[in-house]
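User: Hi! Is it possible to get a structure for several chains at once, not just one? Here's what I have:
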Amino acid sequence: MASSALPAYGQVKAFIKKHISAGSWKPGDPVPSESVLMQQFSISRMTVNRALRELMGEGLVTRVQGSGTFVAELHRISSTLAIRDIHEEVLARGHVHSARVLLAESEKASADLARTLGLRAGARVFHTILIHLENGVPIQYEDRYVNPAAAPNYLATDFTQTTPTRHLLVEAPLTEASYSIEACRPTALQAEHLDIKAGDACLAMMRRTVSGAHIASVARLVYPGSRYSFAGKFQP
Amino acid sequence: MASSALPAYGQVKAFIKKHISAGSWKPGDPVPSESVLMQQFSISRMTVNRALRELMGEGLVTRVQGSGTFVAELHRISSTLAIRDIHEEVLARGHVHSARVLLAESEKASADLARTLGLRAGARVFHTILIHLENGVPIQYEDRYVNPAAAPNYLATDFTQTTPTRHLLVEAPLTEASYSIEACRPTALQAEHLDIKAGDACLAMMRRTVSGAHIASVARLVYPGSRYSFAGKFQP
DNA sequence: CAGTGGTCTAGACCACCGA
DNA sequence: CGGTGGTCTAGACCACTGG
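Assistant: Yes, the chains can be modeled jointly so their relative placement is included. Here is the combined structure:
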C-alpha cells in the first residue's frame, strides 16, 4: 500500500476530503456514519470518531448529535492570521530588528480612551510610541496605551531591547485579543518617522488585548503600505 | 462540583490553560505527562491524550514524542480570518448586496499572468471586473482572472445574481488558497467606480485559489479604506 | 424506537528520546 | 533502559434526533 504510512484516522480523513474536494459529495450531503466507516475501513469507532472530529475542527464537516455528519455548507476560505511579535517576525526573515522610542510616559486618559481600557476618565495610563525598523528601514509605527493595573512595570522597560508586545505577553498573560485591519493615510508625524510621503497608503492594525480581569492594552500599529502586507494560506 | 458539566478532557484542558494563563507555568516549562494527569484526574490515558492533543492544535503546548509536553514558546496572537463570499457577508449584516459587471470576457494572458495561473503565455483566460455594492454603496472592486480549465462555464454566469466566488466554489471546489492584504492607492478607474477620491487609501486583498491540479483563479479585491476593515478575535 | 454522535475506559503495541 | 508520546482496539453508557 502506498498510503500505509498514513495512520488509520488520516486515511479516513483523506478519503472524505477527496470526495468533498472532488465535488462528489456536495455541501449539505451526509457523510457516511461512524458505524459505516468502521466497517468500511475495518477500524474501531474511536478511530473513525477522531477523523470526523478533526474534520469538524477544520471546518469541512458539520456534526449533529442524533442526526449525522454532513459536508459543511460553503467551504470557508479561512486561515489563521498569526500576529507575531514584530521582533521575532523580523528575525525569522533573517533580518535585524531595532526600535526607536519616541515617547514613553504616564498620562491622563481621555474619556474615549478610558472607556476603551475600562477605566474611569482621567485615570493614569501608560503611553508609548515606537518606531520598529527592519535592517534600518522603518516598518511599523506603534502607538500603544497600557493599563497600569495589568502591567505596573511597563515604563521601566528598555523598549530598544524588549518590545512592548513581549513585555506584555510576560507581564500580562493573554486571555483574549481582538483586532481589525484597515487602510489609512499617515499623519504628518507618522509619515516623517516612517520615511514615507504624506499621501502614501498605510495599513493600520488596531489591537486590543485582555488579560484576566483587565483590558491590558490598546495599540494602533501603522505600516507603510509599500513595505508590509499580511499574508496567509489555507489548506482544507 | 461546579464544573461537573464539563467533560473530563475539558477539565484537563481548563486545568492546563489556567496554569499557563496565570503564568505559573512559563513557556518552555514541561506540562505534567499523560500518566501523571491520568492519576491526578483518575481518568484513562486516551482522555488525557485528547486534551493535550487539542491544546497542541490550539497552539498552547508543544509535544515531542519521547520527550514530553511543554508550554508553547510565545502565545501566538492568532485568529481565524474568515474570507467569506461578499454576498453572504453583506446579507449577514442585514443589508442588500448588488453587483455591477464592468467586464466579462476571454482574453490572452500576459506572460506574468500566465505564470501566475500556471499556463503557457498567450493562453486564453477569463477576465471579469465587478463592483460589489452594499445598500447601493460600492465596497469592493473585484478584478479576477480565471483558468478556463478549472471553470469552463464561468463566463456564462450572470454575475449580478451569482458572485464569482460562489460560482467557483461550486464549479472548482477549493483545495488550497493563499492571500495577502496590503494597503494601496486606487487607480483612476477604481476611484471612479468605488466613488472615492484618487488619494484615498484602500485595502487590497490578493487571493489565489487552487482546485485539484489547476490554479483556478487569481483575484485582486480593492476595498475603500474608509468603508471596510478586516476584523478578528482570538481567545486561547 | 433505532440510529446518530459525545464521551470514556483499560488495556495494547510502537517509535522515539535521554540518561 | 525507562519514560514519553502516537496510535489503536473493543467494548461501554449517555443524550439527542428523527420517524
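The mean pLDDT of chain A is 90. The two ends of chain A are 24 Å apart (CA to CA).

User: Great, thank you!
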